[in-house]
Design brief:
The complex is a heterodimer. Chain A is built from five helices and 16 strands. Chain A is α/β, with parallel strands linked by helices. Chain A has two domains: 94 residues, Beta Barrel (Elongation Factor Tu (Ef-tu), domain 3); 149 residues, Rossmann fold. In chain A, β12, α5 and β13 form a beta-alpha-beta unit. Chain B is α/β, with parallel strands linked by helices. Helices cover 31% and strands 20% of the residues of chain B. The longest helix of chain B has 15 residues. Classes of the chains: A alpha/beta, B alpha/beta. At the A-B interface, loops of A face β5, β6 and α9 of B. The structure holds flavin-adenine dinucleotide (FAD), flavin mononucleotide (FMN) and FE2/S2 (inorganic) cluster (FES).
């Protein structure tokens, strides 16, 4: 836990913000994983008591800075959006288990929906650095919600879909995940709303492509002490409620049980 | 803030049952797991004691998600006693805590029927490293999850007698605030042999997801905790401590050292800190330090001076 200073905070689209601050630790020497999250207090008074989980989106090793990208979802993130450059921010993390990177892979498929896209940016950077071919398939409601497209394009090709066709193709991410398309990849990495993850898991199971899903559950502590954030996970033949803040938020796709 | 040396002048120890706690602050059950995670933040020996997550006879998976909702200055939870079962706790979790030699361990016990509680207590009685048991007769989150024992004085008394008959260590009974008359419940437990009382557990509440037109928690109802419940807890501690002769642990919305002072003045001998740990992993040790500073600034030499200080002085 640390008080960090906000170095930039900008609105990047309708209700979407990019927030950068000095990392609470030395990023050169600290281990972190794409897909991990930061647990952030939006105020130091008691009106919004709980922290808000936001994914690690960009890591600037040179300036030792971290960036999160978030949507104003409710009152807490609205409060966060009023923070100014120079303000202190109470940040815990990076927390949880992120995406596991497979050095032996040649081509990786990244699938993101809405504010599930942010963690894919740092992931894409790392995969690209390893020389892997990276293709991101990302879906948004409309061009008003589209984010991080040029960031992703730095590391590979990007297919954009929107519900209304206002940018990219009209449709949803699973529309492009046909088996022939998926055959070109070694693995997939997905993050997005639960219905999308469920559909992706189903389609890519059929295509026989292994992958990871980053789950989104409501969190209390973010460090494993409240047991509030669980999701059913199948391991060693048993289904158990696992803490997504500690064992996740990223799980192997085949382990995740959806109701 | 004053220096740490100044705080050292204040005696934070409190006698509690047969123990001498090095300070009156302990994490509340279900808000600290079994201590492992927080041990990455500070030395658990600094705590007055630790109360671990509710332990039941068999493993429980708890309720479905969502299990948490935020409320003004508080939160609702419907965890539903997810825990690995008493055998696993004895095998894996209690030995870990035994490493902390200066940390009294209090095990919170839950169940469905009296026989479950008795069996869990029998098994825990084999473990040397436990300082006391806390009977959770007040969990609002499980169907028949003990709450009926927590709302009926006769049943509470029957439970306490059954546990006292098999327990070889002190038994603290944790009361539910979801009753009409908390003093009646407290007296029933005291008469039945409870060694101490802790209060309060969470208040039953609900939040509606107005977009989906249904309760937000998968379980429907949940337990309210955090600063929002503190006035209810302080009132109950005040009323109960005026009626019983056994020590009381005050619980509910403790976020700062001054909140501890408030509970002590209301008649508690110690406090538990729950929700605050979720907001700030260092909450307990910060609160201990703030308590020391407050005492120092107010010329209090021993925290025991504060216990019941808000009560009318008899004979004055
Ligand atoms: C691991 C993880 C990573 C995330 N990363 C991002 C990200 O990078 N960018 C982004 O915009 N959003 C992200 N989210 C979702 C984000 O945490 C929520 O949108 C945010 O907490 C909403 O807070 P609020 O106060 O605005 O909404 P409110 O509805 O007022 O919040 C009330 C409570 O519900 C919780 N909550 C509400 N919606 C969600 C949700 N969808 N997921 C989890 N908790 C929720 C809040 O944390 C809070 O405790 C992530 C969620 C998780 C679990
Ligand atoms: C997530 C959560 C889990 C809890 N689990 C338990 C439990 O297992 N046993 C128990 O006796 N009380 C449990 N409680 C109640 C707390 O121990 C405490 O009585 C209550 O939260 C009020 O204190 P607070 O306002 O400081 O959180 C739980 C509370 C929360 C928020
Ligand atoms: S958020 Fe508390 S255990 Fe995961």
């Amino acid at each position: 836990m640390a008080l960090v200073t906000i170095s930039s905070h900008t609105r990047i689209n309708a209700d979407l913000y990019e927030l950068t601050f000095t990392a609470p630790m030395d990023l050169q020497t600290t281990r972190y994983e794409p897909g991990q999250f930061l647990h952030i207090r939006v105020t130091d008074s008691f009106d919004f008591l709980l922290r808000r989980p936001l994914s690690l989106c960009k890591v600037d090793l040179l300036h030792n800075r971290l960036t999160v990208v978030y949507r104003v979802q409710g009152a807490g993130t609205k409060r966060l959006s009023t923070k100014q450059v120079g303000d202190a921010l109470d940040v815990l993390g990076p927390l949880g288990r992120g995406y596991q990177i497979h050095k032996e892979d040649h081509a990786s498929l990244l699938i993101g929906g809405g504010v599930g896209v942010p963690p894919l940016v740092e992931l894409a950077r790392q995969l690209h650095e390893l020389g892997q071919m990276v293709h991101a398939v990302v879906g948004f409601q409309s061009s008003q919600q589209a984010i991080l497209l040029s960031d992703l394009a730095q590391y590979g090709s990007v297919t954009v879909l929107t519900d209304d066709g206002s940018i990219g193709k009209k449709g949803i991410v699973t529309d492009v995940l046909r088996t022939e398309f998926c055959n070109g990849f070694d693995r997939y990495y997905a993050c997005g709303p639960t219905p999308m993850l469920k559909a992706v898991q189903q389609v890519l199971r059929t295509a026989d492509l292994p992958g990871y899903l980053s789950l989104e559950e409501r969190m209390g502590c973010g460090i494993g002490i409240c047991v509030g954030c669980v999701h059913p996970i199948m391991r060693d033949g048993h289904v158990a409620n696992m803490k997504t803040c500690k064992e996740g938020p990223v799980f192997a796709a085949e382990e995740v049980v959806f109701s | 803030m004053k220096s740490y040396e100044a705080i050292h002048q204040v005696d934070l120890t409190v006698p509690f049952l047969s123990l001498s706690l090095k300070n009156p602050v302990m994490p509340a059950s279900g808000c600290f797991a079994f201590g492992r995670e927080i041990s990455a933040f500070y030395d658990l020996n600094r705590l007055g004691a630790i109360v671990v997550k509710a332990t039941t006879l068999d493993e429980r998976q708890g309720n479905a998600s969502p299990r948490l909702a935020e409320t003004p200055a508080g939160m609702l939870n419907s965890i539903g006693l997810q825990n690995p079962g008493v055998e696993c706790v004895i095998r894996e979790d209690l030995p870990y805590l035994a490493i902390y030699e200066q940390l009294p361990v209090i095990v919170n016990v839950a169940g469905t029927a009296i026989e479950d509680y008795v069996e869990v207590v029998k098994r825990l009685s084999q473990v040397q490293s436990i300082a006391a048991l806390e009977l959770n007769i007040s969990c609002p989150n499980v169907k028949c999850g003990g709450i009926q024992f927590g709302t009926d004085p006769e049943m509470a008394a029957e439970m306490v007698r059954a546990i006292k008959a098999v327990a070889n260590i002190p038994v603290i009974v944790k009361l539910s605030p979801n009753v009409t008359n908390i003093v009646e419940m407290a007296l029933a437990c005291e008469t039945a042999g409870a060694d101490a009382l802790s209060l309060i557990n969470t208040l039953i509440g609900m939040q509606i997801d107005v977009e989906r037109k249904r309760p937000l928690l998968a379980n429907g109802v949940g337990g309210l905790s955090g600063p929002a419940v503190k006035p209810v807890a302080v009132r109950m501690v005040y009323e109960v401590s005026s009626a019983v002769h056994i020590p009381i642990i005050g619980i509910g919305g403790v976020m700062t050292g001054v909140d501890v002072v408030e509970f002590l003045m209301a008649g508690a001998s110690a406090v538990q800190v729950g929700t605050a740990n979720f907001v700030d992993p260092y909450a307990c040790v910060r609160i201990i330090e703030e308590l020391g500073v407050w005492c120092d600034e107010h010329g209090v030499q021993s925290v025991t001076e504060l216990i019941g200080a808000a009560k009318p002085k008899i004979g004055v």
